[in-house]
Each structure stands twice: as C-alpha cells, then as structure tokens.
C-alpha cells in the first residue's frame, strides 16, 4: 500500500467520525477554529511586527508621518544647516582677510592705489 492509499483510508475513517450530538460537534469545531486562528496569529506576529516597524504601517497618520513628513523635514533641516555652515565659512574668510589687511605693514591707501595691483603682478613674476 502506498502513501496515497493510506492517506485515503485515514481520510475515510475520519470522515465517518464518531456519533456525537450536534452541540458537541459545533463546540469542537469552534475550539479548533480558535486554536488555528491563534496559531496563525502567533506564527505571523513576529514577521508582521518587524515589517510594520520597517514600513511604518500602510495606513493612518503613522504612514504619512514616516513616509512624507519626516523625510521632508530632514531635507529642509539639512539644507538650512548647510546654508548656515557656508555663511559661517564665508564670514570666517572675510574676517581673516580683514585681519591680514589691518595688521599688515602697508597703509590702507596702498590697497586703493590703482598701480598697486600692477606692482603686485610684476613683483610676483
């Protein structure tokens, strides 16, 4: 006898069942369905919890918050931070140039002289 024949015989025996009143059969069926539902929920719960944490859910305010608002706020914050950093860098460079001009040996009028620029070019060659 092969597996299919054995399975068929077992199925036939189970289908005959016991002679139980309909109330007991209904309670057994309900208990079985509840047990199967709990087993499915427990088996899927860790995966669904992980997937929900990663995706932020697929509906409701948490979806909008995690998929739209937070990335937009992050981009805006980054752009503002980069802009502030660039302005600080430019201000630092201007301060360094001003300090070098003011502490240099040349008078300020020398920098305003039109011939000074030509003299600098000739002397650097």
Description of the molecule:
The protein is mostly helical. The protein folds into 2 domains: 55 residues, no CATH class; 69 residues. 86% of the residues lie in helices and 0% in strands. The protein has 5 helices and no strands. The longest helix is centred in the middle third of the chain and has 43 residues. 0% of the residues are buried.
User: How would you spell out the order of helices and strands?
Assistant: HHHHH
> Major beta sheet, specifics?
none
- Structural class based on helices, strands and sheet pairing: mainly alpha
β-strand amount: under 5%
Report the radius of gyration as a whole number of Å.
41 Å
List how many beta strands DSSP finds: 0
The DSSP helix count reads 5
Please mark out the parts with pLDDT under 50 across 5 or more consecutive residues, or reply none.
none
User: Percent of residues in helical segments?
Assistant: over 70%
Q: What is the count of structural domains? A: 2
Distance between the amino and carboxyl termini = 105 Å
Shape annotation: rod-shaped
Mean pLDDT over the full residue set: 77
